[in-house]
Design goal:
With 293 residues, the chain is α+β, with helices and mostly antiparallel strands. It folds into two domains: 114 residues, D-amino Acid Aminotransferase, Chain A, domain 1 (2-Layer Sandwich); 161 residues, D-amino Acid Aminotransferase, Chain A, domain 2. It contains eight helices and 16 strands. Helix 6 links the parallel strand 11 and strand 12. Bound molecules: 4'-deoxy-4'-aminopyridoxal-5'-phosphate (PMP).
Amino acid sequence: MGLKIYMNGKMTDKEHAKISVFDHGLLYGDGVFEGIRAYSGRVFRLRDHLERLYDSARAIRLTIPMTIEELEKAVIATLRINKLKDAYIRLVITRGNGDLGLDPDKCSEPSIIIITDKIKLYPEAYYKKGLEIVTVSTRKNSHDTLSPSIKSLNYLNNILAKIEAKLCNAQEAIMLNKDGYVTECTGDNIFIIKNGELLTPPSYVGILNGITRKTVMKLAVKKLAMTVKEELFTQFHMYTANECFLTGTGAEVIPVIRIDDRIIGDGKPGKYTIKLITEFRKLTTSEGVEVFR
Ligand code: PMP
């Protein structure tokens, strides 16, 4: 049996899971999404992801025609039918079919899509040796244009930054906001450690409020007794940090050892970073909504 995709209440074979060319998700990037993971048959932080999805939808005046509980059940049903225990889950809500104009009111019903698939990760070597990343010239969207807190289907800002990183043979791009403060990477939040203190940019600088970010901040306080601060910082603070790492649903916690050709700390994943990777991995295998009860 091939992979089944949840589409508007039905489990559809992968080959037949198609949306209309009039869907405004395709025509205008009008919609929202989430990336979630399941580890050993448990969905990690499912509620947090669903709440962020509903917040993103609310921010763009898109009413998801399902309750959060119904959507939660649909995610679990999709994993079950595909017998997936370790999976990446992509939830997509588009504005639905409209005409060729922008008007969202002309769209009939939002499309609800749940894709579950095997997870593709950064190679394990990067967790051991660390990433080499660069600051790019593409600035982060600002709150007064398109809020980075909305996980919308319009990811061009991040894609342009990713293209720049790839041109430099770097694994990720650090994006600054229009004032030159560090925000985040194209699909991950960023942290630095200086003198035992953990720093990450605050939400208002223009970031996605990462669920891994929140989890790691709590772990740093509870398990490593670290001071955690949400503070503005610049490239200078990254270059002079003792440690740096990124967080995200796909990447989990991943060390960074070089930024813009400057070596961070001693050029090896730092001791706090290594501990946080271990603590985070413990959590992913011990918590979460069970799929196969
Ligand atoms: N920033 C951006 C731009 C993202 O797309 C993501 C999610 N891939 C993150 C940060 C990390 O968020 P989370 O930990 O919730 O996956």
